[in-house]
Structures are given as structure tokens and as C-alpha cells.
Amino acid sequence: LREALILKASNQGSLRPGPTQRPRPITSEDLLRGFERNELYPAFQPKVHLATGQVVGCEALARWDSPTFGAVAPDEFIPLAEQSGLIKSITLQMLRDSVRMARHFLELDRSFEVAVNLSATLLSDTSIPEEIEKELEEADVPAQALIIEVTESTAMTDIARAMDVLLRLRIKGVGISIDDFGTGYSSLAALARMPFSELKIDRSFVKECLTDADMWKVVSASVAIAHQYDMKAVAEGIEDAETWRALDELGCDIGQGYGFARAMRRDAFDEWCRHWNRQHSLAITSERHQA
Ligand code: C2E
Ligand code: MG
Ligand code: MG
Ligand code: MG
């Protein structure tokens, strides 16, 4: 039943068109124009509590649907935004939309956490903690409902600088996630000093963890590190029910991946959650009946 649900869920995700033939290379002016014309928006990918299947929140992922270039992937336009400085405006817009989304779920009396990615370039911007607090206050959302994700390589390249911004956010109650864990070079000592509340295991390890013993070792060691340091362990890139089950048995707390759903626009996300939670509570009940 779990398998059937997962298949169903993955088919519901909004598929983005593949890479299109570009009329010309994209410039930062194109991106700026696209931003001003509201062509950028957040898509939300659910994060699921592995033991119960309940949705605990989501990650906001930037999308750009350009009339000229089609769907441009964030791996392509985020570096462009970082170079041109537009990343700050994009991130603040992502934050604004995300905290509003969190507010909506909190009103449905559910605990809900929304995660927003923060670029390396913004970790040296000391106005960022205040800007984030302002967005939380304006949406009347508690800091505990927000998670800021920074990649391992970003956070660990200049620890002193990252520490300042991240600690100020963490003290306010904002969750801090170390993203793409396992792909950078963290020292265990530095990891202990950083104010992380969550560790996200990179999907390159999760993807093959059931077929490649070395990958499994990386994943299980990462879960152990997370718990030793009082962080939640999150696996990204869960694509099938076997991986879900194995990671749950390993003690990994939360999962995210196409096996649950792809990132979706706000309306589709709401709809998916309703469907998922209803189906899922049914699935749990009938599994109990069978047992
Ligand atoms: P990330 O933060 O590690 O986000 C996870 C990426 O993995 C997303 O790609 C997501 O769609 C993808 N993913 C999730 N589950 C699966 C799965 O089961 N299978 C596969 N194959 N992929 C999965 P996406 O949306 O293309 O984003 C790529 C990266 O771009 C993100 O990696 C993040 O580093 C960056 N990014 C996206 N939005 C933003 C943003 O608003 N600000 C910044 N600074 N970076 C962003
Ligand atoms: Mg992320
Ligand atoms: Mg990640
Ligand atoms: Mg990743």
C-alpha cells in the first residue's frame, strides 16, 4: 500500500519541461527583468516525518518560468543572481512568500516548518538576520517555523563569518540546516561549534544507499553524527518506499524526495497535503488492521 501511495504521489508532482534550446545565453539583465516581471516564484517540496508519514513542513525552491527561455533551473540562475547581487532581493521575496505559507499552515493549527536556502554571498551580509526577523514579524510567524538552509561548503568555508549571521538567527529561534552534507569538508570540531539544528544528507548518497554499501555507510554515519550533535537527521532525494523504510529503521528523522512529491506551487502543495494526510492516515489505519 505504501508503494502504491508513493507511486501515486510521485506522479502528481509538477514535471518541469526539460532543458530547452536557448535562443542565446541568459544574462543577469534577463534575470533582473524576469524578477521585475514576477516570473520567479517559490515551489514547495514537502518534508515528511519518516516514522509516521506526516508532513512536517517544506523546502521553498526558487523557480523561474521565463517566456523567452522556458523553465530555467535554479542551478543555472542562482549563480547568476549571486554574481549580480540580485540574490538578496530574490531571497527576501522567497522568505516573504514562505513565511506567509507557514502562517497559513499554523492557522490550521498544525506545527509547520518552512525552509529557505541562503546563499554564501548573503552570509557576509550582516543585515540579513534583521531582514529575516522583519519578515517573520510582518507575517506574525514565530521564528521556530522558519529554517534557513546553508550548504556545507558555504557554511564551512569561512566559519567565523557564517557563525555571526547564523548564531544571531539561531538565538532568535530560527532553525539552521546544514545542506548537502557529506559533499563539503566539515571538521567535526567546527560542526560542534556551529549552531545547526538539522543536518541534510545530500541526495547523491541517499539515491544509491540501498545498492552501494559505501553510500549506506555515509548515510548511516551522517545520521549518527546528526544525533550526536543534537540535530535532526534529514535525508534528501528519497525516491522509493524501500529507501523510506530503510532510513526510518536507521533512525533518520525526516525525508524529502520525489518519492513523496516534487516541489509544487503553493496551491498544488496545499492540495497535495490534504490528499496525502488523508490517504496516509487511511494507510496507517489499514496497516494496523492487517497486523
Ligand atoms: P538543494 O537546496 O539541495 O535542494 C534540493 C534539490 O534536490 C532541489 O533541486 C530538489 O528539486 C531536488 N530534489 C529533491 N528531491 C529529489 C529527488 O528525489 N530526486 C532528485 N533527482 N532530485 C530531488 P532544485 O529545485 O533544482 O534546486 C537546486 C539547488 O538550487 C538547491 O539545492 C539549492 O542549492 C539551489 N536553490 C534553489 N532555490 C534557491 C533559493 O531560493 N536560494 C538559493 N540560494 N539557492 C536555491
Ligand atoms: Mg536546500
Ligand atoms: Mg540539499
Ligand atoms: Mg543537494
From TrEMBL:
Record-level GO BP terms: phosphorelay signal transduction system
Superkingdom: Bacteria
GO molecular function: cyclic-guanylate-specific phosphodiesterase activity
Keywords carried by this UniProt record: Phosphoprotein
Residue span(s) of domain EAL: 24-277
UniProt name for this protein: Response regulator receiver modulated diguanylate phosphodiesterase
Covered residues, full protein: 123 to 413 of 413
